[in-house]
Amino acid sequence: MTAPVTLDDIRDAATRLAGVAHRTPVVRSRTLDDLVGAEVLIKCENLQRIGAFKFRGAYNAVSRLSPEQLAKGVAAYSSGNHAQAVALAARELGSSAVILVPEDTPKSKVDATRGYGAEIVTYDRYTGDRVAIGQALAAERGLALIPPYEHPHVIAGQGTAALELLAEAGSLDTLVVPVGGGGLIAGSSTAAKALQPGIRVVGVEPVAGDDTKRSLAAGERVAIPVPRTIADGQAAEIPGELTFSINRHLVDEIAVVTDDAIREAMRFVFERLKLVVEPSGATGIAALLSGQVPGPGKVGVIISGGNVSPERFAELIDGR
Questions:
Q1: What is the pLDDT of residues 220-251, one digit of tens each?
Q2: Active-site residue among 164, 304, 305, 306?
Q3: Annotated catalytic residue: which of 157, 180, 209, 300?
Q4: Is 205 a catalytic residue?
Q5: Are 272 and 45 a contacting pair, CB within 8 Å?
Q6: Active site residue 209
Q7: Three-state DSSP class for residue 204
């Protein structure tokens, strides 16, 4: 059976993103190494354009649309980061964007999305079906729908983060990746397993949003109630069909972390690395600090994003 996304697709996406997306830094912390008992290399996608890895997949997908479709515009649904990514990608490519976001999306993410020129449409995440609403909106307006993870070009674009990490870090024993809908880990595991077949790929979810962990254990997609967690970017109810078809074969295990562990990881990264990380972006570090991914060895971890307002960041690390 042909894989929906291949290493060649990810390499092609990397070529398309060259000079457009940032090649984000890989950083180290001796303190983290000592605490974890491993050599940890951190890929800082919080320093990517729009503050998250999502720009990679959004730009790769939008840039492949026809001139006619770009003229009509694009649509997306998102809890925040994909919204900003599609809005910026559309602007960069001379198109327009209409973005469907939950009513409780952090104001900083909504403001940033509007700042990139997008029109915002809201819905209630606890009662509405964002996929159905997004599809209806796109069809009504003749827009190309760019989903946050259920798209091979989006997944291939996200995989370029791991491609860069592996190129800089060399051989890794373990790769740790936050999991929401599964696009980042699907792309990352595709790149990692193709380049280093023996690598262990570990996904990380918040305890309240462990739909991928449950699904991998069951061998099929399992739906859960809408998660209530500070990691709003990982508040998925069910893994994507396309992403799960990849992850069930390539992801070795899923670790889960509490909201308190996420807060501690945010505080640690701020104090030791001088980096601001949003809750979803901190789950990989939280898994390391809480012993969910034990050493020894050489571990790569992706910080997926840093989009959090100063006020909310202060509240979170204060435990509010």
A1: 999 999 889 999 889 888 999 999 999 999 99
A2: 304
A3: 209
A4: yes
A5: no
A6: yes
A7: strand
Coil, strand or helix at 119:
strand
- What is the rounded CA–CA span in Å between residue 9 and residue 16? 11
Neighbours of 181 (CB within 10 A): 28
The CA distance from 296 to 176, in Å, is 14
Distance CA 255, CA 7 (A): 25
Told to judge if 211 belongs to the known catalytic residues of this protein, a careful annotator would answer yes
Query: Is 66 annotated as catalytic?
Result: no
* DSSP symbol at 94: T
Q: Which of 43, 54, 193, 213 is catalytic?
A: 54
- Token digits for 11? 């390499």
Q: Give catalytic status of residue 140 as yes or no.
A: no
Number of residues assigned to the chain: 320
pLDDT digits (tens, 9 = 90+) for 99-111: 999 888 878 888 9
Catalytic status, residue 54 = yes
Smallest Cα–Cα separation from 301: which of 45, 80, 56, 85?
45
Of the candidates 78, 79, 189, 215, the residue annotated as catalytic is 79
Residue located via tokens 């984000």: 24
Flag whether the pTM goes above 0.90.
yes
DSSP per-residue codes, 221-235: ----PPP--S-GGG-
List the catalytic residue out of 205, 210, 232, 259.
205
